[in-house]
């Protein structure tokens, strides 16, 4: 599903954010990518979603070589990779339903299709009874659920969650991780980028550790070891 071959990302004058990284993630895996701040996790995310280009190496996503992806092709890539960030980025003047709809509307999808898909994804994340509420009237955990629903509307093959529990308490964080596991069971490949030790240790899934731009650990059933 995802293959990085000898990937380096070097910023001027000689800052090695990632250096000669090789990584293979198979379809349907649930992988935690861990490491301290400034170790290269964010750079890896930006490379995978086409926000940055590597200095060297090759990136394959779903059989598509995105190493030198053009700007016009990035929206197509983003439909294959659903992205969930720590910052909710919800539109405050739209309901949760309307926020999720908006992700399809900007792509020109017909309203009939939108009306079919959006209630389904909101039900997956447990918001079917709060879809007409505004972001300011629901909890942080519920806002993050709406963000996950928005990431699912294009039925992506990969869900990339970048610090999705960073702004949440432990109870809400656990609920978000349960939703990610549920999505993974549907067959979606899930990449969880986090520095939350408790979350990673409870998951008992594959753990990739990045330190100073290098992969220093890759455990099939791992723990947060930093």
| Tally of contiguous helical segments | 7
Low-confidence stretches: none
Whole-angstrom Rg: 17 Å
Domain unit count: 1
Could you tell me the strand content as a percent range? Answer: 25-35%
Strand tally is 10
Query: Main beta sheet, described?
Result: 6 strands, mixed
Q: What is the ordering of alpha helices and beta strands?
A: EEEHEEHEHHHEHEHEE
Shape descriptor: globular
Distance between the termini: 27 Å
Strand order of the largest sheet: 6-7-8-3-9-10
CATH superfamily: P-loop containing nucleotide triphosphate hydrolases
Q: Fraction of residues in helices?
A: 25-40%
Walk me through this protein's architecture.
The protein is of the alpha/beta class and 226 residues long. It has a single domain, classed as 3-Layer(aba) Sandwich (Rossmann fold), CATH 3.40.50.300. The protein contains seven helices and ten strands. The protein has helices at residues 41-48, 74-80, 96-105, 111-124, 140-152, 170-185, 197-203, and strands at 2-11, 15-25, 30-34, 56-61, 64-65, 81-85, 158-162, 189-194, 206-211, 214-219. The protein has a six-stranded mixed beta sheet with strand order 6-7-8-3-9-10, with helices on both faces. A hairpin with a 2-residue loop joins strand 4 (56-61) and strand 5. Helix 3 crosses helix 4, helix 3 runs parallel beside helix 5 (140-152) and helix 4 packs across helix 5. The longest helix has 16 residues, at 170-185. It is globular, with a radius of gyration of 17 Å. It starts with a strand and ends in a 7-residue tail after the last strand. 38% of the residues are buried. The mean pLDDT is 92.
